[in-house]
Amino acid sequence: MSTNAHVIFVKRPGVDGAPADDNFGFEECPFPPDPEPGEILIKTLYLSVDPALRCRMNEKTGADYLTPWKIGEEAGGFGGLGQVIKSADPEFSPGDILESQFGWPWVAYFKQRQNKQTPLRKLDTALLGGNLTLPLTVLGMIGLTSYLGVKEKGGIKLGHNQAMVVSGAAGACGSIAGQLGRLEGCTTVVGICGSVEKCKVLTEELGFDAAINYKTEDVKEKLAELCPCGVDVYFDNVGGEISNTVINQMNKDSNVILCGQIAVYNQDLPYPPPIPESIESRLKELNISRTRFLVLNYVEKFEESLKKLAELVLSGKLKVRETTMEGLENTGKAFVSMMNGGNIGKQLVHVADP
Ligand SMILES: NC(=O)c1ccc[n+]([C@@H]2O[C@H](COP(=O)([O-])OP(=O)(O)OC[C@H]3O[C@@H](n4cnc5c(N)ncnc54)[C@H](OP(=O)(O)O)[C@@H]3O)[C@@H](O)[C@H]2O)c1
Question: Is the pTM of this model over 0.85?
Answer without folding.
Answer: yes
